[in-house]
Amino acid sequence: AVKRAAIAADELGIEFLTMYAFSTENWKRPKEEVDFLMRLPEEFLAIELDELIEKNVRVRVMGDSEALPSYTRKAMDEAVLRTQHNTGLILNFALNYGGRKEIEDCMRSLGEDIAAGQLSPEQITAELIDSRLLSGGLPDPDLLIRTSGEMRLSNFMLWQLAYSELWFTDIYWPEFGKEHLLQAVAEYQRRTRRYGGR
């Protein structure tokens, strides 16, 4: 599903695609399931990384990598390193990521700078916060696609999704394909984004 979505997004001219691979809350799942999920990046990239490189895809990762098993970290680091000069689609994996934790860490960082006299409260802007988030350097998502019939954000990019369009589907992620992405994009194109205006 990751490969299908990434290739379809690239064919559509989409420049940035972030996938929620593992949340900070997913550690609460049974150990066997967590172990299985932690092996997926290694297995996926061993098979698909060469094709992603050939397609000029650049891999990025955001989340707390320190808590990840060494083999997961190694696989992701290799993918980031080997694709760092690619100029096509940016495929951003949110791995051991949580939106609230991201905001908490950002606020702590800003607070430390204020305490050290390197920043004044008046200097804190939305743009500065954007730059301190894990997604720094990426634009806010235009569209959030939520699969599996779930109707919630599940602690995903809470700051960045402020004005994103939302699209929900009952299709489970393993079955998600190009036709579903096309359907979501077509629905997005029919909407009018006002950003609070008229």
Approximate strand percentage: 5-15%
Q: From the alpha carbons, calculate the radius of gyration and give it in angstroms.
A: 18 Å
Total domains? 1
**Which overall shape is indicated by the principal axes computed on the Cα atoms?**
globular
Q: Which stretches are poorly predicted, pLDDT < 50 over at least 5 residues?
A: none
Count of DSSP E strands?
Answer: 5
The helix/strand class is alpha/beta
Which topology does CATH recognise?
A: Undecaprenyl pyrophosphate synthetase
Notes on the structure:
The chain is of the alpha/beta class. It has six helices and five strands, in the order H-E-H-E-H-E-H-H-E-E-H. It has helices at 2-11, 31-54, 70-83, 99-115, 126-132, 178-189, and strands at 16-23, 58-62, 90-97, 143-146, 165-168. The N and C termini lie far apart (38 Å). The strands form two sheets. The protein has a three-stranded parallel beta sheet, with helices on both faces. The chain has a single domain (2-186), classed as 3-Layer(aba) Sandwich (Undecaprenyl pyrophosphate synthetase). Helix 2 (31-54) runs parallel beside helix 3 (70-83). Helix 3 links the parallel strand 2 and strand 3 (90-97).
Layout of SSEs?
Layout: H1 2-11, E1 16-23, H2 31-54, E2 58-62, H3 70-83, E3 90-97, H4 99-115, H5 126-132, E4 143-146, E5 165-168, H6 178-189
Parallel strand pairs: 1-3, 2-3, 4-5
Helix pairs in contact: 2-3
Provide tags for this entry.
198 residues, single chain, two-stranded parallel sheet, 3-stranded parallel β-sheet, alpha/beta, Undecaprenyl pyrophosphate synthetase
